[in-house]
UniProtKB/TrEMBL annotation:
This is Cohesin subunit SA. Belongs to the SCC3 family. PROSITE patterns: SCD. Keywords: Cell cycle, Cell division, Chromosome, Chromosome partition, Nucleus. One of its GO terms (molecular function) is chromatin binding. It comes from the Eukaryota. Part of the cohesin complex which is composed of a heterodimer between a SMC1 protein (SMC1A or SMC1B) and SMC3, which are attached via their hinge domain, and RAD21 which link them at their heads, and one STAG protein. It comes from Phasianus colchicus (Common pheasant). Residues 30-41, 1114-1127 have a biased composition (Polar residues).
Length: 1207
């Protein structure tokens, strides 16, 4: 019986898998190790050999027999492969048993070992062995001719007729022929299989080889038989075209050489010891002619020399026969294995391998296309550069490949980049001046990368190269300040950040250094002392820029210590802290609170006039442990803090400062802590003062009106007052001050007169919006119906105000109104109904069709509009300002687009509105591609079918615009830039579906269905004599053909054929889009492509002939009869035009291949050339989108592929 090639991957459970070893000069091994006599002449001799071998088999296998329960039966493991794969016994015992069997009969043991390697390759075929040299052949000419004949037969072939693979090669002293059935598409074998069991098997396999060499080093390793056989076997397997053989044998050979090197090192030590003893003995007996001890040591020394020569020959044979041919193998795993092991050889035996003859292979493979191979190179080099005694021999390698290593932190594979940075760290430590200043400056910038492991590795490089200092970090000085070391270290950090002009991300820099300089970065006392220092002439005082950076560093370190996770943008999710980390975090929060409660008021007082510094300092209290105020009796410091904040609010109108102040009050006003009453009183007092100022200004405004609007001073004061109140109204409920009526009156005045300043309109809009939000939140909890109705009127009124300001003359007002309106609609349409369903029902508000159109028009006018290039002839300073302005404008546009896309994603506006957004996907990809792509992904998650219809609607609208711009007499220009851009857009849409074709099956099918119907719109009659005007649209939807499953391509093809009349009446050139589209649907169908190649015409549905496909072996049996493939193809081509029933057979074949795909696709009979509206199309008047159930309610009358039976 011939087993399947992967049967070895499962533990043997049948008795025919047991070993029956018999040995003869020529032998055949079948069913893993069953040997039949092929040369003994008499039956008596045969019987004698069989009895001897049976005794050997029983003795050798019984000692390593292992039982395992599988499928309710006890399975006895008697082969090496079974014992090693089960891993039930110590590997040394397994090897000892095999060595004992080898000493009794080396042929039987070696055949068992040969089958072990064959089975580890995933093959359980037939192994045939015959002697390479016959002992009776003494004639040299005959021996020479025999060798030449054997070399000519060293082949590897595949018999397509039988489906068997043959591999013939020399494994001294045998010629082995391995025969096994092959599934060409199968790339699964034990050493690459996933899962803990197979990982353990691979480890056991490598351990077996190492232990085998170790146990044989004092006995049979040097018998000129064992190693010759193993090396020739592995060399023969490594030359195979079968990946499993090459990979397994290469892994074995590399581990074998590693083990042999260990033996070589032991022999070196023994030889050195023997030499020393010889010298001592020789000196001791000087003058005597002879000595038995001296002769014995001399023989021992010569024996070691001979063994070393044999070991070196083995090493050269493996390296030249295996490594040199396999380190460039097409399989990356094989290349990685070779590079990993040569790195181990260099570290283990540097006297031989640490030279440029071997290092060059690692250097060359640094340029490998596969990340796995590059990673092994870097890991190997790390082991070398970490040892200073080896670095001195690396000068030539370093000079040759340094530039490549310096560039590898930019590698697209994150792990390779991280290990490259670690290698450069080792090179910097152990190689003097190997990295130039330019190299270091380049590597320092990686602390700002978003990939945290790489940033941390770069942080280590930066800290040890630039920031660390000689001596200890804990040097203290008597008095209030710390001595130079930490201050200088801090200044170097500040200087580095200021010199990094390309990056302004302090949080990223601190996070990169946190693991290496955490203790230094938590020294807030040293930092604040440096800030509060007023001394002159001592060189310790910082300038303004350095103070700003140091304050940012303080804030970043406080945030890192209190939160315990990386900053936003670095890391996918928040880190789950361990118990120890939580304890450290709690201690750090307490330390932060105790220190900054006393110091922060002083810092705020010193920098009260600097908006940027104050805004950063005011963020520190949010990380306080507020209970410390009571437990530490520190209320006086709270009074100082509140006093400073009140003064800052009065001084500043900068939004960042006001928002930070408002948030600080919000943090301190927690009702759960004891200081709430004091902070609430201070807050109320502050708001009273702010409202008093605003009321005074409003009174003056209503008295003067037009005169007020022309007074710049009054407008500035009004602007500041409204900004302060808006900032506090965002976090605090100011409803009791009746702010809504005051700001609403201002907005109504602007609507009537249009003379109000923009500086007043913007904060007034914001205040009105916040006032309504607080009222809405209060009404949702519990309010009377009368109150709800009144609030409903106010909501409608505010929406009308926002719509009015969408057309304001000032751009900032229009953008602010649009942003507020989008957020307003989103909030009103997604209220929480758990508390008060009646309130939700009354206050619910969805945009009308006209409002949706206005919002979409606003996006088109303000986002997707090209700005004029007017930066020519500007000075450097003007260009910098112009560039900054463009970045600000881009940020505003992205915010506007994101606000509108949220309305689409959450079904506030119709999904079909997204078609206008998708049109700009390719053209604006660099600016808005991420937002549009995320919108597409979210809408597809909400409703697959409707999302697909939106995509095809986008393409249809673009095509109609393109068709209107073309000359009707000349037809569509398929090479024009507009048409090419449409195809590119369709291709990008296709890429968004990903690799899971089954997941996107219905969506892609809907795109083809809608596209086919659109392409044939406008065709007159059913005779097809008039070319459809939209036929070129088929070229666009052909970009989605590769996302169709094989059976679905046939269904779409059949659906397409319902619109086509054969033969085509017009010139083939005019129907080229149809031909190309059909070609994309049948690209993977062998039978259709062969018919096209022979006849040059497209047959109608059902006229294709399914050609015979390659026969594959099933269950180890061969087909009884078969014709040659060439004859079948010739016959098929001759009958292609006459056959009409082969389509059913082709469908049956597809059915057998895709049995799990039984769903019905959303394709239906066109019923003529008029397109019918489906039930699930969204009407433009509707507010919400129908559910998924309605989306799949299309009528279907096209059978799924495979439904037809073979006639």
């Amino acid at each position: 019986m011939i087993a399947e090639p992967n049967a070895a991957c499962n533990l043997p459970s049948h008795k025919e898998n047991a070993v029956r070893d018999e040995t003869v000069p020529e032998c055949t091994v079948q069913n893993n190790s069953s040997v039949r006599n092929g040369n003994l002449k008499t039956s008596r001799e045969k019987r004698k050999v069989r009895e001897q071998c049976e005794n050997i088999r029983r003795n050798s296998s019984s000692s390593r027999r292992v039982s395992q329960l599988q499928n309710g039966e006890v399975v006895e493991a008697v082969t090496l492969f079974e014992v090693v794969s089960m891993g039930k016994r110590a590997m040394q015992c397994v090897v000892d048993d095999w060595v004992e069997a080898y000493k009794q009969d080396r042929n039987v043991a070696l055949l068992d070992l040969i089958n072990f390697f064959i089975q580890c390759s995933g093959c359980q075929g037939v192994v045939t062995a015959e002697m390479f040299q016959n002992s009776h052949q003494q004639d040299a000419n005959r021996i020479h001719s025999n060798k030449m004949d054997v070399m000519q037969k060293m082949t590897e072939t595949f018999d397509e007729e039988t489906g068997l693979q043959y591999k013939k090669f020399i494994a001294y002293p045998w010629i082995l022929t391995v025969t096994w059935p092959v599934d060409v598409s199968n790339e699964d074998y034990p050493v690459i299989r996933a899962g803990p069991y197979w990982k353990k098997f691979k480890a056991n396999f490598c351990e077996f080889i190492a232990v085998l060499v170790q146990q044989c080093q004092c006995s049979i390793l040097f018998d000129s038989y064992l190693m010759d056989t193993i090396i020739s076997l592995l060399t023969g397997l490594a030359d195979s075209v079968i990946r499993a053989f090459r990979h397994t044998s290469t892994l074995a050979a590399m581990k074998l050489l590693t083990a042999v090197i260990s033996v070589h090192l032991n022999l070196d030590v023994n030889k050195h010891n023997a030499q020393r003893l010889y010298e001592v003995e020789k000196n001791r007996i000087s003058g005597k002619k002879t000595n038995y001890r001296l002769d014995q040591l001399e023989r021992k020394r010569k024996e070691y020399d001979q063994k070393l020569v044999e070991i070196q020959n083995m090493m050269h044979a493996i390296f030249k026969g295996m490594f040199l041919s396999r380190y460039r193998d097409v399989v990356p795993e094989i290349r990685a294995t070779c590079i990993e092991e040569i790195g181990n050889w260099i570290k283990t035996y540097p006297d031989v391998f640490l030279n440029d003859s071997y290092l060059k292979y690692i250097g060359w493979m640094l340029y490998d296309k596969q990340a796995e191979v590059r990673l092994k190179c870097l890991l190997g080099l790390q082991g070398i550069y970490s040892r200073k005694e080896l670095v001195s021999k690396m000068d030539l390698f370093t000079s040759r490949f340094k530039d490549r290593i310096v560039s590898m932190p930019l590698d697209k594979d994150h792990e390779v980049a991280v290990q490259a940075m670690k290698l450069l760290m080792l090179m910097s430590q152990n190689c003097e001046d190997v990295l130039s200043a330019e190299d270091c400056e380049t590597l320092y910038q990686f602390v700002y990368t978003t990939h945290r492991p790489l940033a941390v590795a770069a942080g280590e490089f930066l800290y040890k190269r630039l920031l660390s200092h000689e001596g200890g970090e804990e040097v203290l000085c008597k008095g209030e300040k710390k001595v130079g070391a930490k201050t200088d270290q801090l200044k170097r950090l500040i200087r580095f950040f200021l010199d990094s002009e390309l990056h302004k991300h302090v949080a990223y820099l601190i996070d990169s250094l946190w693991d290496w300089a955490g203790k230094f970065l938590k020294d807030w006392e040293c930092m604040t002392t440096l800030l509060l220092k007023d001394g002159e002439g001592d060189g310790k005082v910082l300038n303004d820029d350095q103070e700003s950076v140091l304050i940012e560093i303080i804030l970043a370190t406080v945030r890192e210590a209190a939160e315990g996770h990386p900053p936003v943008g670095r890391g996918a999710a928040k880190k789950i802290l361990s118990v120890k980390e939580k304890k450290i975090q709690s201690e750090d929060c307490t330390k932060i609170t105790e220190h900054f409660i006393m110091v922060l008021p002083q810092l705020l007082a010193k920098y009260s006039t600097d908006a940027q510094k104050v805004a950063n300092l005011l963020q520190i209290p949010q990380y306080y442990d507020l209970d410390v105020y009571n437990t530490g009796h520190l209320e006086k410091h709270l009074d100082a803090l509140l006093s400073e904040i009140k003064g800052i609010v009065a001084k500043h109108s900068d939004l960042s400062v006001l928002e930070a102040s408002s948030r600080t009050y919000y943090i301190l006003c927690s009702e759960k802590i004891a200081i709430y009453s004091k902070v609430d009183c201070a807050r109320t007092q502050l708001i009273d003062e702010l409202m008093g100022q605003l009321n005074q200004l409003l009174d003056g405004f209503w008295q003067k009106e037009e005169g007020f609007c022309t007074d710049a001073g009054e407008i500035s004061r009004m602007h500041s007052a409204l900004r302060r109140i808006a900032a506090f109204h965002n976090a605090h409920d100011l409803t009791k001050w009746n702010l809504y009526d005051k700001t609403l009156k201002l907005l109504q005045f602007e609507m009537e007169h249009g003379s109000l300043s923009v500086l007043v309109i913007l904060p007034a809009l914001q205040c009105t919006y916040f006032s309504l939000l607080w009222q809405l939140a209060a009404a949702a909890e519990n309010s009377a119906k009368k109150t709800l109705l009144a609030l409903r009127r106010e909501l409608r009124r505010f929406s009308e105000i926002c719509m009015y300001f969408l057309h304001h003359k000032d751009k900032d007002v229009r953008e602010k109104a649009f942003t507020i309106l989008c957020d307003w609609l989103l909030i009103l349409s997604h209220q929480d109904s758990n508390n008060n369903e009646e309130a939700v029902g009354l206050l619910d508000y969805l945009p009308s069709t006209s409002l949706q159109e206005k919002l979409l028009f606003f996006i088109q006018e303000h986002v997707f509009v090209e700005e004029e290039e007017g930066s020519k002839g500007l000075t450097e300073e003007e260009e910098r300002k112009d560039k900054s302005c463009k970045f600000d404008n881009l940020h505003k546009k992205r915010s506007l687009l994101a606000a509108y896309c949220k309305l689409i994603v959450y079904n506030v506006v119709e999904m079909t509105a997204a078609a206008e957004i998708y049109k700009h996907y390719v053209k604006t990809y660099n600016d808005f591609g991420d937002i549009i792509k995320e919108t597409l992904s979210r809408t597809r998650h909400n409703n697959k079918i409707q999302s697909a219809k939106t995509l095809i609607l986008c393409l249809q609208q673009l095509f109609q615009t393109y068709a209107e711009s073309q000359d009707s007499s000349t037809g569509a220009d398929l090479s024009s830039a507009s048409f090419t851009n449409m195809k590119e857009l369709a291709r990008r849409f296709s890429l968004t579906f990903g690799w899971d074709q089954l997941k996107s099956r219905e969506s892609v099918a809907m795109i083809h269905k809608e596209g086919i119907e659109f392409a044939f719109q406008g065709a007159t009659g059913t005779d097809g004599k008039c070319l459809p005007p939209n036929l070129s649209f088929l070229l666009i939807i052909s970009e989605f053909s590769n996302k169709l499953l094989k059976p679905d391509k046939r269904v779409v093809y059949d659906y397409l054929q319902r619109y086509v009349v054969e033969p085509l009446p017009c010139s083939r050139d005019k129907w080229q889009p149809l031909i190309l589209y059909r070609n994309s649907l049948l690209a993977n169908e062998d039978e259709e492509s062969s018919i096209l190649g022979s006849s040059g015409e497209w047959p109608p549905v059902g006229t294709s002939k399914a050609l015979p496909f390659k026969r594959k072996l099933s269950n180890g049996s061969l087909p009884e009869t078969s014709h040659t493939e060439a004859a079948s193809q010739e016959a098929a081509l001759e009958r292609a035009s006459q056959l009409t029933s082969a389509g059913g057979r082709s469908r049956k074949r597809l059915k057998s291949q895709e049995k799990h795909l039984k769903e019905r696709l959303p394709l239906r009979c066109p019923g003529g050339l008029q397109r019918r509206r489906s039930k699930d199309e969204i009407k433009t008047e509707d507010v919400s989108v129908k559910g998924q159930a309605e989306d799949t309610s299309e009528d279907v009358d096209i059978d799924v592929v495979g439904a037809e039976q073979d006639n």
